[in-house]
Amino acid sequence: MAATRNTFTGVLLIMIGLAFLVGQVTNLDFSWTFILMGLGLAFLARALIDKQKGSSVFTGVLLFLLGLAFFGDDMGWEMLGVWEAWPFIPGIVGVAFLAEYVFTVPKKQGLLLTSLILIAVGALFVMAESRYMDWYTVSQILEWWPIVLLIIGVWFLVRKPVKSGE
After folding, report:
1. Is 61 in a helix, a strand, or coil?
2. Residue 81 and residue 126: Cα distance in Å, rounded?
């Protein structure tokens, strides 16, 4: 446990130091987004070492992708025709849940469902902001969200029961 904590702290300090160094030796302004990305990479490094990967993977992916999205927003990157980072946030959280689902044993089905819903909502926001779809269409789609609850309820009723050890 002490080795894991030391590795996590070491990677975190290296990432923050590299971020400040990059800011000093280049014309790239140091930004708080580098701290988010560095924290994310530190959590991902911890997940590689630690046996309980789920929460570290979720946190690492979430922080790194949020930092990257906000860094792109600060730099004026156009991502899929979108100039702002906010439409990507639900999808980023969904990808973090998906990463936790992939790297966690035993698999938690709720994580998969949550990730797919958040990724779908994020995709709707990105399509609306990038003008692939207008906001009226998105609002019409979102009016039918109770159907998702019905489908999930039916799935719970017809799925094969999972044993507690699986």
Report:
1. helix
2. 9
Report the amino acid identity of residue 99: A
Token pair in block for residue 18: 């590299």
The model's pTM:
0.68
Q: How far apart are CA 129 and CA 138, in angstroms?
A: 10
Residue 26: both structure tokens together: 């280049």
Q: What is the mean pLDDT of the chain?
A: 78
Amino acid at 77: W
**Secondary-structure breakdown of the chain: helix, strand, coil percentages, each rounded to the nearest 5:** 75, 0, 25
* Inter-residue contact 30 to 23 (CB < 8 Å): yes
Q: How far apart are CA 79 and CA 165, in angstroms?
A: 43
Contact yes or no for 28/22 (Cβ under 8 A): yes
CA-closest candidate to residue 95, choices 110, 115, 123, 120? 115
For 21, the enclosing helix (H) or strand (E) is helix 2-25
Q: What percent of the chain has pLDDT over 90?
A: 5
Average pLDDT over residues 110-123: 86
pLDDT digits (tens, 9 = 90+) for 10-28: 777 777 787 778 777 877 6
